[in-house]
Amino acid sequence: MTIWPGKRPKILFSARRNSGHPSFAGGPAKGGTKYKKMPELPEVETIARGLRSLLQNRCIDRVDLVSAGCVQSDPRAFVDLLPGQSILDVCRRGKLLLFHLSAGLCLASHLKMTGKFLLFPPEKREIDIHDRCVVHLDNASSLVFKDQRKFGYLWLMPWDELMTWPFFAQLGPEPLEMSEDDFVSRLHTRRATIKSLLLDQTCIAGIGNIYADESLHLAGIHPQAPGDTLSREKLSSLYHSLHQVLNLALEAGGSSFRDYVDGLGRPGSYQDTFLVYGRRGQACRNCGSGLEKIQVAGRTSIFCPCCQPRNPFTIAQEQC
Hints:
It is a single chain. By secondary structure, the protein is α+β, with helices and mostly antiparallel strands. About 25% of the residues lie in helices and about 20% in strands. Residues about 1-10, about 20-35 and about 315-320 have low confidence and may be disordered. It contains eight helices and eleven strands. The strands form three sheets. The protein has a five-stranded antiparallel beta sheet, covered by helices on one side. It has helices spanning about 40-55, 75-80, 160-165, 165-170, 180-190, 195-200, 210-220, 230-250; strands at about 15, 60-65, 85-95, 95-100, 105-110, 115-120, 130-135, 140-145, 155-160, 290-295, 300-305.
């Protein structure tokens, strides 16, 4: 028996298959909106991989929208258009989770700080006050979007509109798909700090505070070093360090502290091996020095002053 803690939220909109579909209304606002970027690439990719095998070719039977505020397209069209759609694929771009639907539609989601998708088997759903949207599938399972802080969002749009949505269209290349030459070329002439460049989603997509700090420490680069002061050799080291960190995080199912779990409710474990992130004042695992905290690009950055010296910066010896 499932019990709501406190007063059960009212379902604002609900629709089943064959209930009559209006034409699509709404779409991404031009120019996009600035959002905090959490979770990061490994967490969103882990969710996508886990849900893909379980949701592919499943048909959406009914949608219950508990909180219309989580839908940034037209809420009424959202619940009327989804029933009857088949889920063709679940994938990721940057920090966006994308559900590729039949009839040329895409359901895009940004989880923000506390958003999560959980898949419940028939009659096993755990209902709570943080449920924002419930997607009932044709096998009686339920995909639930939960979000305690209500920063996450859902957006239903035609697939071709996704391609022209400024936020999506301006995303930089995927770090695990870039060549080393492309990576170095993108950073070698930029005057911004290397940490801010890694966080810039138009430069490289999917990297956030955790994996920027971890990869910079592994490469021995100070987070405040301007990109154009780093040698190609140093940037190549960062490229390989970033790949190493992201791949290890993917193997560990991402990093869990606070809210992140995958689509089946399983936490990640990469946080158990953090080199610097969240370890201010603790000993560097490499040299034993105390880790320090600074602000870079408005974000807290943890680094080792010995392994990642501030001055002098590594001066570029080559020209682009």
